[in-house]
Amino acid sequence: MNKRQFLKSTLGFSLMPSLAHLLAQPATADDELYWAQIRKAYRIKPDYINLENGYYNILPEATLEKHIQHIRDVNYQGAYYMRTTQFPDRKAMSKLVADVVHCSPDDLIITRNTTESLDMIIGGYPWQAGDEAVFALQDYGAMQDMFEQVARRQGIVLKKVSLPLHPADDEEIVNLYANAITPKTKLLMVCHMVNVTGQILPIQKICDMAHAKGVEVMVDGAHAVAHIEFNLPDLHCDYYGASLHKWLAVPLGVGMLYVKPEHVQKIWPVFAENEKAAKGIERLNHLGTNPVHAHLAIQDAVEFYRQLGPARKEARLRYLQQYWTKQVRNLPGVILNTPEDPKRHGAIANVGVAKLKPAELAKRLLDEYKIYTVAIDGNGVRGCRITPNVFTSTAELDQLVRALKALA
Ligand SMILES: Cc1ncc(COP(=O)(O)O)c(C=O)c1O
Question: What are the residues facing 219 on neighbouring strands?
Answer without folding.
Answer: 190, 240
